[in-house]
Every structure is written in structure tokens, then in C-alpha cells.
Design brief:
about 170 residues; mainly alpha; Rna Polymerase Sigma Factor, Chain: A; 2 domains; about 0% strand
């Protein structure tokens, strides 16, 4: 893949929070994680042509980050208590699995949200706008806070069931 394409840039920027969370889970130091993320981004940029389109970009980015974390562990192993290499590998592998599960869960949630009736989808969107509150929605709609809360509770329950079904259908649960 060409690193100068809009698609690559979207994949790279879209993966930032997942890769950062992955790195933090391995090194437990936000400042160091930021440094590792930057080094990872440079490597991803340089090796963009190695990425196989159609595969999981986040998994590829996390694998690249893993090697940067290993390098930092080697450099800084004298400074702090460091996990045994086997424990570290196990934790890294589990975090990669969680990242893939999170991606699948997010995709299922987006699909389930799209399948909601328009009125319910609009209520969910209004609730999660910046600065929104159940109280404000209730006031705007002339409803009680309890009725809006109950509607959101039911919608969340339906979304949870829908997501679990989709993941089950894909064999991810």
C-alpha cells in the first residue's frame, strides 16, 4: 500500500487509540507509551508497502508496536522490575486478541445501531452528543427523566443482545 494515499492515512490515524492502548497495556508508562507510539508510527510509515490490503491494519500496527516495546524493555530493563519474557509474550498476545475482539464488537455495534428504528437511533445519538444529558433530553421532549432513562436502558439492552448475536454468528464468542 502506498503510504501517501488517503486510505493509508485513514488506517494509520484510525488505529492510533488502539495501538496506544496496546502499548500502554504492555509498558504501563504513558510517557514511554507516547514515545513508542511515535516510533511505531514512523516504522509503519516507512513500511507501508509491506501492509497487505484487506488484512487487519490495527493488528499489523500492534505487532509492529510490540517489537518497539521489546526494544524499550531491553533498554530500560535495569531501571525497573520487568516481567519474564514468557509472561510478557503472553500479555502481548492476550492484548492483541482483545484488540481484535474490540474491533469485531465495534463493527457489530455499528451494524446494530444502523438496524435500530430511526426514533431509537436518534435518541441514542442525542444522548451521546458532547454535553448531552438525560435530563436535557427529557426537558426538550417534555418527558420525565425516568421515561427517557428507561427508553435508553431498553435500547442498550437490545443493542447488547444484537451485538452478542452478531458475534456468535461470526464465531467470535
Amino acid at each position: 500500500m502506498n503510504r501517501d494515499t488517503e486510505e493509508f492515512i485513514e488506517l494509520l490515524t484510525g488505529a492510533q487509540s488502539s495501538v496506544f492502548a496496546y502499548v500502554v497495556s504492555l509498558c504501563h508508562d504513558h510517557a514511554r507509551a507516547k514515545d513508542i507510539l511515535q516510533e511505531t508510527n514512523v516504522t509503519l510509515w516507512r513500511k507501508a508497502e509491506d501492509f497487505e490490503e484487506g488484512t487487519n491494519f490495527t493488528a499489523w500496527a500492534c505487532r509492529t508496536a510490540y517489537f518497539h516495546v521489546l526494544n524499550h524493555r531491553r533498554k530500560f530493563s535495569r531501571e525497573q522490575l520487568v516481567f519474564d519474557e514468557d509472561v510478557f509474550d503472553y500479555l502481548a498476545e492476550r492484548q492483541e486478541q482483545r484488540s481484535e475482539e474490540t474491533d469485531a464488537r465495534l463493527a457489530a455495534l455499528k451494524t446494530c445501531l444502523a438496524e435500530l428504528p430511526e426514533e431509537q437511533r436518534a435518541l441514542v445519538n442525542r444522548r451521546y452528543e458532547p454535553g448531552a444529558s438525560v435530563q436535557r433530553i427529557a426537558e426538550e421532549d417534555g418527558k420525565s427523566v425516568g421515561s427517557v432513562s428507561q427508553a435508553l436502558y431498553r435500547i442498550r439492552g437490545a443493542l447488547q443482545i444484537c451485538v452478542e448475536k452478531k458475534l456468535l454468528q461470526e464465531g467470535l464468542v
